[in-house]
Amino acid sequence: MKLIMLGAPGAGKGTQAKMIAEHYSIPHISTGDIFRANIKEGTELGKKAKEYMDQGALVPDELTCDLVMDRIAKDDCKNGFVLDGFPRTIPQAEALEKALDAAGQSMDYAVDVDVPDENIIGRMSGRRACLNCGATYHIVAIPPKQEGICDKCGEKLVQRDDDKEETVKNRLKVYHDQTQPLIQFYQDKDILRTVDGTRPMEEVFGAIQAILGA
Ligand code: AMP
């Protein structure tokens, strides 16, 4: 199963993508995670990506597309994958379509996790992340067992720079300008499915399972 998760930053698409990946045993491919890993390792790509990410802007398509195409060509993607945070622009969606087309493949679904803007800012200001293992929490909705500490690896949790309020506002604007047109793009291809992302995360996952089957 080949799946794209769509939704505003903070809509919970990352959380759902991880649950889907685990349930269906397919790789979870998050471009944000790939960039953050590169920043942590101090790679050239990481240095370039950070300049954009810290402002809430998108990393340019030429730094993003090849990265994803290489990743989905790997062996573990044979039975499918869930894309989280990619595509984020129409040119990225077209690049993905072209690469899959060349391999005689296509995406099965684009799932839009729909959450109104007014809910987003509160959600994101409560978000905490573990920079060591990538786990994400929310101080109210998904609190860690021990405040400020990652359940999975015991590292300290932090608020990501790009989850701070000013950056969030900019990310939302970027989402509306550049990413939201993808909803129509996938609607036209008849693979768009929408779930109500304001519901508790287990219910959102249930709605996604109903779409995907099993
Ligand atoms: P995320 O973790 O998906 O919210 O991504 C965090 C940040 O990484 C975004 O705000 C962008 O700056 C950058 N980023 C992630 N995925 C992409 C993408 N597909 N295209 C451009 N920039 C991206």
Summarize this structure briefly.
The protein is α/β, with parallel strands linked by helices. It contains 9 helices and 7 strands; from the N terminus they run E-H-E-H-H-H-E-H-E-H-E-E-H-H-E-H.
Ligand inventory: adenosine monophosphate
Question: Helix-strand pattern, N to C?
Answer: EHEHHHEHEHEEHHEH
CATH superfamily: P-loop containing nucleotide triphosphate hydrolases
- How large is the radius of gyration? 16 Å
End-to-end Cα distance, whole Å, is: 12 Å
Question: What's the level 1 CATH class?
Answer: Alpha Beta
Which of globular, elongated, flat, extended, rod-shaped describes the shape?
globular
User: Roughly how much helix do the residues carry, as a percent range?
Assistant: 40-55%
Number of helices: 9
Main pleated sheet: 5 strands, parallel
What does this structure look like?
By secondary structure, the chain is of the alpha/beta class. The protein has one domain: P-loop containing nucleotide triphosphate hydrolases (Rossmann fold, 3-Layer(aba) Sandwich), CATH 3.40.50.300. It has 9 helices and 7 strands. It has helices at 13-24, 31-41, 44-53, 61-72, 90-102, 117-125, 165-179, 181-188, 201-212; strands spanning 2-6, 28-30, 81-84, 109-114, 127-129, 136-138, 192-196. A hairpin with a 6-residue loop joins strand 5 (127-129) and strand 6 (136-138). The mean pLDDT is 94. The protein binds adenosine monophosphate (AMP). Adenosine monophosphate (AMP) binds at residues 9, 30-32, 35, 52-53, 56-59, 64, 85-86, 88, 92, 162, 171.
